[in-house]
Amino acid sequence: MALSEFQLIDRVFAARAAARADVSLGIGDDAALLSVPAGMELAVAIDGLHAGIHFPEDTDPKAIGHKALAVNLSDLAAMGADPAWATLFLSLPHPDETFASHFADGFFSLAERFGVALVGGDTVRGPLCAVVQAHGFVPAGEALRRSGARPGDGIYVTGTLGDAGAGLGVVQGRLDIAAPDGDFLRNRLDYPEARLRTGRALRGVASAAIDVSDGILSDLGHILSQSGVGGRIEIGCLPRSEVLLRTLPEPDGINLALSAGDDYELCFTVAADHEPRLQSLAEGLECPITRIGRIESESGLRLIGPDGRIYACDGSGYDHFKGTDNGRDDGDH
After folding, report:
1. 47 among the known binding-site residues?
2. What is the pTM assigned to this prediction?
3. What topology does CATH give the domain 5-139?
4. Is 252 labeled as ligand-binding?
5. CATH architecture of 154-319
6. Does the annotation flag 121 for ligand binding?
7. Which residues bind Mg(2+) 5 (predicted)?
8. What is the pLDDT of residues 24-67, one digit of tens each?
9. What order do you get walking across the sheet with 300-304 strand by strand?
10. Is residue 54 part of an annotated ligand binding site?
11. Ranges of CATH 3.30.1330.10 domains, the chain
12. According to the annotation, is 262 in a ligand binding site?
């Protein structure tokens, strides 16, 4: 006998929701009752993942659950916020308890790592889709924004770029990369890491920040536009994993690092007088950081090759309404 909506919620989600002292009322009523600590601002992010658009049809449901939460935690990281709560809208073609249980395994495994409480949501019948709204706290006036970059600031990224885009290529059969390298790239696509510790450490250090969901060209472009500045990227400084360097010849690897989506690293800018402080913080961060360029007063983004010449990239980052397949749009709000 098929489960009802409420049976599915009770068995799979409500029973696993973590308790937090700032949750007066969680799952089970018409709305959650939540308390924001004094002196904090509430950061809210929402993203949806649709089958066949934001993840391949054959993706493990555990990975879908992980990613549905991770992409929202990445947005909070880019704001310098500490995560607290989440709500979940899950649309399923039919009430599949096995799928929902594996989805929940991925979702709650990540939620438990970062102390996130699921406080509500909805489960309906329809095309496979997961929408998460995440809530976090940031000290009043200390949130990282996209609008603070100034000429002379260094441009930095966390981790490595292009792996998830290569992983998508492997899944779609456009790239023939055997295991274990192919598995590594697919894992980077399916299980992104939200750089929450780094985002928290960047409060008071970074002048602007954004998460890299649609490709560094597109996402850095948002910082440049909202800050009213330009910039340059040194192509030779782009951080790429050993797997990407080993498996993709140039210029394919560089172009993926510049334009592929789904990396969920942080791109941020730091004023020159704060760069020594950033370097002293670097050892305590969860991933490497790399300076890839500088903010400039002249508008536009210039790509500079190792030979000092302008580099032309085949790609410009993902745009959901262009119908391209080199990444995905996370619809930052």
Report:
1. yes
2. 0.91
3. 60s Ribosomal Protein L30; Chain: A; (3.30.1330)
4. no
5. Alpha-Beta Complex (3.90)
6. yes
7. 214
8. 999 888 999 999 999 999 999 999 999 988 999 889 999 999 99
9. 206-212, 265-270, 154-158, 289-296, 230-234, 300-304
10. yes
11. 5-139
12. yes
